[in-house]
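Hey, quick one: can you model this chain's 3D structure?
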Amino acid sequence: MVASFERFGAAHLGAIALTFIAPVVLSAIARFCYSSVASRVISWLFIALLVGHNIESLILLHRDGALTIQTALPMHLCDWAEYMAIITLIYPNQWTYELCYFWTLGGTLQALLTPDLSYGFPDPRFINFFTLHGAVIASVIFMTLGMRMRPVPMSIVRALGWSTFYVAVAMVVNSILGTNFGYLRMKPAHPSLMDYMAPWPLYILQLALLGVVFSLLYYSPFFVLDKLRSR
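Sure thing. Here's the predicted structure for all 231 residues.
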């Protein structure tokens, strides 16, 4: 019998805790060692975890007889955030980091807290889901704390611009394949923040507004820190 997912049950809370505790510990190790070698080793551990997730996803889809272009195409925003994380971990740079930062905290974090998921632990699909979302969030935390990367004011503008590009691409793909990437055609099947929004298509405008608000919110710690340093 397949275990059903229990929101904020022991397994869910454990996944959330591991997502935040692990990168903080790894960041402390990287900074304590004062070694680029330690940072690169940790980065490649994250890369292996994220790449492994993609391979496992295809295996699970094939096992369940659900491997199609619609299910395998990496067109959710979390997928794009994952690829930005992999690029940044391999080749640290500002542009992919800031996209990963805002997309992860604005979207992937919400998916971690309110998963669109039916399967509970120890089902492989549960593990696969939290491997992706947890590892992407943990990667961003490590990049920020361990690798000392950070967004700048223009990062907000660039992230919103690329987010608009993502929405446009996802809408085109959805219209061609009949998919629901970005939840732009319908709300998630399981409870989420979107349940409190207006019906389709008005909630897309609400999501866009929230994107701006969340971008400002997630940049605010750096804004405050810069102000304090300027004094």
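One thing worth noting: The longest helix spans residues 202-230.
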